[in-house]
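Hi V.,

Quick status before I head out on leave. The structure for the redesign project is tokenized and pasted below; the design run finished overnight.
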């Protein structure tokens, strides 16, 4: 059980070590008994090296090696030798070498693992999450965690050169309305009172600007009690930064530098700066999303004008109700009736469309559609006046409804069609700033306005003389390949403006004081103009790693129900603990 002091990592064995004695430590990846010789693949975080046990040289050592099984932890002493040309393993970096073992120590044993420690493991995700410490041994998972480390390290180094201070903010804070549910933490010392885990350090970083820090950042832990998807978790990390006396382009320039530094360090590639810009209204009109994937065309076409005199009553009603009719033109794809029916069902079930119409144009200029009888004979000509690029063989997918709902559904359909028909160039990383967001958005269910970003976002000049729906914000999101990587804004620093925005949001003076009194008070003491941005660390690493699940880039993630299968949390607690906290269930 002696642990030899390691002299080199498995994956670092090279020509320089040939003929030399080395010490290695790691896990047994596999064992092969061939013609008396015993071969062990030894794995550590750097890679794999082959070990050789020869019973003719040391029978006792070979017998000991024969007892080794997968995931045993061993420590060895041996001499590095070159493999014969025919036995070289080109699949691994150390495939030209092996280690002839002189001494072996079995540090710890292992039962048969619940799944193989291989990248192409077939085990279900729940089983891998239950044994996450084993799952993380797989080379691919190890690379994800290493990549995350490299990203964070390069971010810190870059911002340090720009003279930012890294400052931690509290995890036990005050519950404030920021758009999602808070995770609450009961206080034992102050019964019936609660802390909240921060959804973001938003208020703290603004207070740091008030404190004269001027340039702040941290890799912040954030907590949101919301429904999960593949790219959401109840706890996550973001690069959070704030700057005083800046304009939008100053903040954007810093974030572009962060991304360029990461890409150069990880990929050795230089990204062209500055990134392109697109206003929110244009992004939504063309792509049905505020985070458009610009790697492929298939843009939304407004064809409302074509149906202004339609015989289709349901479409006419949409227009009479100030709705819109939009379409996606899919080129050169032969759809069967069953395939078209499938897209109809997907649009209603997954994309939020109230319905999906299709029109398929044949080579002779005629067309086929469930509503063919309601369309004029020259429908192809009328459509071509609006969509000049349409041609025989193309298919139109049409959604009608309120502008917001119809275009959102078309945007989701667009992304699905792009993936289904391989329209997306997966080798590209298209970066885009989406700017000029609406300051507020109306929620019909609540019959009130909510902040599009947060209630401290600075409105653009002239906002007081505009309709509420038309007020634009000094807000900006950084988008890459259809994912929002970062979002930020300039902040309100004038107490009078802040008070007016609270009023638009239906936040009373008393509620404002209760929730944000300390921030409002700070605004009275020489509050500087400032702005900032937050970049999702997991989303950035996902983009770099080309994985679709945020769980892949978090060491110990939760499931879509918020459970940790490894620790079996959340779990019930002892009644004594609840009593101490003054909580009764």
């Amino acid at each position: 059980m002696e642990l030899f002091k390691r002299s080199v990592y498995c994956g670092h064995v090279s020509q320089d070590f040939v003929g030399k004695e080395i010490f290695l430590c790691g896990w047994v990846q596999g064992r092969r008994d061939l013609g008396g010789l015993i071969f062990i693949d030894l794995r550590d975080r750097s890679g794999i090296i082959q070990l050789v046990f020869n019973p003719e040289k040391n029978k006792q050592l070979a017998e000991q090696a024969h007892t080794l099984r997968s995931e045993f932890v061993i420590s060895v002493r041996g001499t590095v030798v070159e493999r014969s040309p025919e036995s070289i393993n080109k699949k691994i970096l150390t495939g030209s070498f092996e280690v002839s073992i002189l001494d072996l120590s079995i540090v710890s044993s292992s039962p048969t693992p619940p799944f193989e420690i291989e990248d192409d493991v077939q085990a279900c995700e729940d089983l891998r999450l239950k044994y996450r410490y084993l799952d993380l041994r797989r080379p691919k998972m190890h690379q994800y965690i290493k990549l995350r480390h490299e990203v964070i390290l390069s971010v810190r180094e870059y911002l340090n050169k720009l003279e930012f201070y890294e400052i931690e903010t509290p995890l036990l804070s005050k519950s404030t309305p920021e758009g999602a549910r808070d995770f609450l933490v009961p206080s034992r010392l102050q019964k019936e009172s609660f802390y909240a885990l921060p959804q973001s350090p938003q208020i703290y970083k603004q207070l740091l600007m008030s404190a004269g820090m001027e340039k702040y950042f941290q890799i912040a832990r954030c907590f949101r009690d919301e429904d999960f998807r593949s790219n959401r978790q109840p706890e996550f990390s973001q690069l959070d930064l704030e700057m005083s006396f800046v304009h939008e382009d100053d903040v954007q320039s810093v974030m572009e530098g962060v991304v360029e530094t990461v890409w150069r360090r990880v990929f050795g590639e230089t990204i062209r700066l500055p990134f392109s810009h697109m206003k929110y209204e244009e992004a939504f009109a063309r792509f049905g999303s505020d985070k458009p994937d610009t790697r492929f065309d298939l843009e939304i076409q407004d064809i409302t004008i074509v149906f202004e005199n339609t015989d289709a009553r349901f479409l006419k009603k949409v227009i009479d109700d100030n709705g819109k009719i939009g379409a996606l033109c899919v080129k050169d794809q032969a759809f069967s009736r069953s395939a078209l029916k499938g897209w109809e069902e997907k649009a209603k079930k997954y994309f939020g469309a109230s319905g999906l119409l299709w029109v398929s144009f044949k080579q002779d200029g005629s067309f086929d559609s469930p509503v063919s009888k309601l369309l004029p004979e020259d429908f192809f000509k009328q459509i071509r006046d609006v969509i000049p690029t349409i041609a025989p063989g193309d298919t139109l997918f049409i959604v009608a409804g309120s502008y917001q709902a119809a275009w959102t559904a078309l945007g989701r359909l667009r992304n699905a069609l792009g993936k289904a028909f391989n329209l997306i160039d997966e080798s590209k990383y298209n970066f885009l700033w989406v700017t000029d967001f609406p300051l507020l958005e109306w929620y019909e269910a609540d019959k009130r306005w909510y902040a599009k970003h947060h209630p401290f976002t600075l409105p653009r000049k002239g906002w007081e003389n505009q309709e509420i729906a038309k007020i634009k914000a000094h807000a900006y999101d950084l988008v890459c390949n259809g994912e929002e990587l970062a979002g930020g804004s300039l902040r309100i620093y004038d107490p009078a403006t802040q008070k007016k925005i609270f009023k638009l949001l239906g936040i009373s003076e008393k509620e404002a004081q209760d929730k944000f009194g300390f921030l409002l008070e700070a605004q009275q003491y020489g509050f500087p103009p400032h702005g900032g941005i937050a970049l999702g660390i997991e989303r950035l690493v996902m983009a770099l790693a080309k994985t679709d699940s945020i769980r892949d880039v978090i060491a110990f993630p939760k499931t879509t129900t918020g459970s940790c299968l490894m620790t079996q949390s959340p779990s019930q607690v002892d009644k004594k603990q609840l009593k101490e906290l003054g909580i009764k269930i």
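Above is the designed sequence. The chain has a mean pLDDT of 94.

G. will cover questions while I'm gone.

Best,
W.
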